[in-house]
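Need a sequence for this fold. Nothing fancy.
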């Protein structure tokens, strides 16, 4: 036996039980995402967002649902969509504020729980986001964009032909696009209606507003440093809720900050962040606290856990919560492939596991004695759960993915092997439904991105299940460099891409071959982003794989540094700039070894990718084509490195299966 069977959470496991048929790529149209759980002030109900992929528009449609927190009755749809998000309960629980698109951009709306039509509170020219109620229930703060800007269809031919003048390195960001003249600032509007009041301004962006318990101040994050046009250093700030006076900075102009949240007594602000250099994504992200008055150095409540805290990149929903009257904080952290909920005391910060198991919890919200959270796993689509603050009494309160009840899911086991230097390298192995023990099967090595990400990557849920349903064992290793195994482990691949991390991956495959699980004559390899780098590297250094799928790769480290939206990351990972160590860049670039590639390669890339621009794949494609090797390039229009349409994802999974089946 290679590893142990990974147990699934008790609640909701029936969704993952084998029933009638195998998963097919088109099932992705029926897979629904759930996010942003919000418990009502009295703890009796949970509001959450459900995203459904629409084939007519090839976009996700989002609606808001309500469910009793005890799971006693089914959830019910509260809004009609098609683009509703960010549900936020009024302090008295009688109304729900939310963001809705009704033809004039995303605007703030308010609906009574007693029924009736929702009413719009804003007509912001560029839309709004991140609403948050004031404690008195009379005001709502939100983020709006300011500045003169026209939609492309509103511009004259001369305006469309005008150049974009770039003066800094931080001029675009994947998932956002090129920055324009608009700036994001905080606004406050009366819940009864009226003219919104802008409370921050300036040539910078403000986000993540949070009211103080007395309703007099707003905490937020902003990068107001002199270096903001070249790198990112967001701080926690506080300003008057009425826009009077100058904002005051609470943190020290180091690292990054997100999601500030006041303690119930108003003396402390907890936030997600770090104080390390821009570009260092190997270091842990922390749950930090800072005094709201006369602040000293921020203090970590998560440091002794030696795990990276989830939530710096603004997931759709809250990621931490004050509990026990401000004595402790709940937060989410990466731990050996999972995302788990931990509790840490404000006075004696030694994190304790609250909600764990083999699953990933991506968002949490607490009210009173109850915590709501989103849970998902390789074998279980996402749903909303509720539990007490100690994790007891867990119950599933949503049924978003009951439409997939007829699918027979693959199973997953953990395993590990020892690297040459003694490190223990862990992997998740997905077995096809009905897999026969002792019979070697075709096996796909799937390499995660990052390099400081980790497996499983739930954005690839459909790929995992699709390959397994097609008869492939899928191995998901977490080589050195992965988060979830301690900061030293995450740093272990920095400056050594294609070195010991490559050996870790080959060791994971070797273990399955030796155990009789993987057929050595039918091995395949695939990966995305850094996984695309490593897949390109792999086929240039071994011919053991019958075929490869390379997605959004890095193939030329020098041109990658010069074209990516995060040049600080590339310089940190490689220990310097291309002109400082050209031979190192050349030696660690997969394109250097293109003439050695004999493996059939299928390349995937999105034309709008700003993180690993499409030229990275084009270099490999042109090299292999010129060498008359078997290569195909699949170019998807639009998108970003991390954003693609539902139809593209269905196609992506289907093409992986077809490529491996034909080789």
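Here you go.
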């Amino acid at each position: 036996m290679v590893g142990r069977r990974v147990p699934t959470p008790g609640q909701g496991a029936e969704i993952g039980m084998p029933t009638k048929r195998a998963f097919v790529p088109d099932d992705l149209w029926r897979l629904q995402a759930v996010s942003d759980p919000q418990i009502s002030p009295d703890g009796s109900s949970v509001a959450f967002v459900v995203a459904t992929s629409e084939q007519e528009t090839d976009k996700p449609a989002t609606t808001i649902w309500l469910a009793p927190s005890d799971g006693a009755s089914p959830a019910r749809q509260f809004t009609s969509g098609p683009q509703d998000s960010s549900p936020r309960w009024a302090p008295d629980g009688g109304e729900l504020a939310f963001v809705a698109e009704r033809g004039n951009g995303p605007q703030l709306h308010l609906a009574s729980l007693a029924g009736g039509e929702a009413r719009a509170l804003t007509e912001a020219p560029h839309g709004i986001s991140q609403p948050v109620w004031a404690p008195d229930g009379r005001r709502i703060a939100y983020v709006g964009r300011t500045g003169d800007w026209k939609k492309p269809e509103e511009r004259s031919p001369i305006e469309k032909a005008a150049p974009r003048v770039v003066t800094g390195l931080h001029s675009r960001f994947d998932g956002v696009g090129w920055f324009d003249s608009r700036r994001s600032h905080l606004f406050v509007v009366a819940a009864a209606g009226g003219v919104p009041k802008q409370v921050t301004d300036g040539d910078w962006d403000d986000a993540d507003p949070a009211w103080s318990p007395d309703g007099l101040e707003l905490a937020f994050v902003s990068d107001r440093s002199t270096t903001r046009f070249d790198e990112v250093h967001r701080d926690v700030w506080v300003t008057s809720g009425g826009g009077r006076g100058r904002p005051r900075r609470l943190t020290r102009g180091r690292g990054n900050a997100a999601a500030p949240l006041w303690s119930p007594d108003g003396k402390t602000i907890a936030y997600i962040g770090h104080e390390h250099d821009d570009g260092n994504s190997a270091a842990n992200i922390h749950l930090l606290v800072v005094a709201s008055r006369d602040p000293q150095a921020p203090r970590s409540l998560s440091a002794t856990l030696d795990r990276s805290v989830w939530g710096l990149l603004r997931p759709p929903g809250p990621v931490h919560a004050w509990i026990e009257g401000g004595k402790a904080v709940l937060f989410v952290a990466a731990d050996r492939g999972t995302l788990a909920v931990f509790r840490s005391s404000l006075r004696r910060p030694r994190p304790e596991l609250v909600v764990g198991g083999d699953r990933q919890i991506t968002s949490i919200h607490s009210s009173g004695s109850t915590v709501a959270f989103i849970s998902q796993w390789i074998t279980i689509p996402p749903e909303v759960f509720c539990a007490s603050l100690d994790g007891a009494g867990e119950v599933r309160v949503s049924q978003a993915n009951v439409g997939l009840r007829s699918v027979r899911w693959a199973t997953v086991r953990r395993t590990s092997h020892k690297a040459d230097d003694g490190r223990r390298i862990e992997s998740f192995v997905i077995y096809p439904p009905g897999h026969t023990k002792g019979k070697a099967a075709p096996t796909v090595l799937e390499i995660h991105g990052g390099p400081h990400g980790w497996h499983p990557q739930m954005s690839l849920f459909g790929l995992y299940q699709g390959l397994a349903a097609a008869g492939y064992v899928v191995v998901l290793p977490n080589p050195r460099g992965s988060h979830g195994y301690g900061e030293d482990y995450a740093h272990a691949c920095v400056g050594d891409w294609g070195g010991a991390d490559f050996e870790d991956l080959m060791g994971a495959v070797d273990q399955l071959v030796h155990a009789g699980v993987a057929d050595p004559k039918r091995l395949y390899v695939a990966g995305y982003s850094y996984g695309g780098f490593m897949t390109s590297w792999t086929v240039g250094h071994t011919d053991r794989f019958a075929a490869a799928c390379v997605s959004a790769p890095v193939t030329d480290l020098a041109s990658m540094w010069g074209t990516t939206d995060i040049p600080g990351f590339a310089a940190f990972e490689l220990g310097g700039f291309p002109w400082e160590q050209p031979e190192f860049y050349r030696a660690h670039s997969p394109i250097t070894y293109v003439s050695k590639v004999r493996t059939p390669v299928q390349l995937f890339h999105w034309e709008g990718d700003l993180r690993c621009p499409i030229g990275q794949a084009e270099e490999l494609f042109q090299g292999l084509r010129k060498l008359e090797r078997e290569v195909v390039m699949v170019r998807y229009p639009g998108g970003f490195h991390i954003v693609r349409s539902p139809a593209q994802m269905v196609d992506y999974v289907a093409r992986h299966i077809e490529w491996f089946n034909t080789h």
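For context: The chain has two domains: 32-154+163-404, 407-661.
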